[in-house]
Amino acid sequence: MGGRITSRIRGLLKPRVALVLGGGGARGFAHLGVLKVLEQEKVPVDLIVGCSAGALIGTLYAFSGSTEAAERGLVEFSHSPGFSDGHYRDIQAIVPLAGGEKRGLFSRLHRAYKMASFFASTLLKESFVHPKEFERNVAAVIPDRRLEESPIPLAIVATDLKTGEEVVLREGPARLAVQASSAIAGVFPPVQVGRRDLVDGGFVDKVPVEVAIRLGADVVLAVNVGLDVDRNGDVQKRGATISARANAIMSEALTEIQTRFADVLICPDVQSVHWADFRSVERAVPLGEAAARKAMPQVRKALRRGWRRKLVRIVGRWPRRTVVFRPLSPSFTPALPEAPPAPAETDRAPHAEAAPAAAPNSPPKAR
Q1: Where are the domains of the chain?
Q2: To pair with 199 at 20 to 30 A between CA atoms, which of 166, 192, 352, 361?
Q3: Class of domain 1-315
């Protein structure tokens, strides 16, 4: 009798663990390495929240049932004759790395030609990659299932192109949700879900930790595959490089704020992987494994403490985690931002919810 009661109490206090997979293009293949380690270490995952590449990998893993099957499917597809990576190679030539790269005259001329071609095509069309090609590529990887059918609950984050809201998709076709979450503006076409035109979720919430907390997570493990800004190397004094670096600085600052609620933040070293190199599966997965192995002590510690939050939430006194801003100077401490008003029900897409802005707190960080 006593043993059964103890067992029921343990089950009741078992923390709900959420895995948050951030955006980063082909660098998101490192998410598979993180999942592989969590699988081997028998770390339970009760919820997956994905953005952009994280939405693709999280959905593929949830429906395939194992990291081996997910990795095998990605490798086979990326090396198949049906995968046309010409557009993605063009993007690699166009987009400079944020830290700057030293290139010869021929390489610079080649990039200038590709950039002119890219901008000319996007002036006449809604995207660089044709909608049918984008749809075909996603369909080759993601099964024709609905999000609510996933063995592991899924939440996919996208951005409303009209209102700028963060939209959380939890029901509906999985392929459509992944397309919406990973539709990089200009490169891929916007995706219509209900009455909303959706684009890449990374524009508003690259690593959507706050979404996981809103959905009832007691322990949040987040994976950031974005690039850190190189603060030691020389900055190339060219407009495209300067613009890319400025955008990287902005993205890094926003991501730091958005991930401070995570219990553990895992950051694979993906500096060597270009975000448009979609044949880098075998190279990116070990990077995720290495980062996850390094973070396992922190993960175990977070899991041990998770039951306390579950207990407090059960008895009805679940507080928000302490909000701590990093002051810009010793004399300046910004005030807490007011929560934005909720959107009208008539503006909402079917099976989608708009998420409020995240508030910051500091998680441990593993690299």
Answers
A1: 1-315
A2: 361
A3: alpha beta
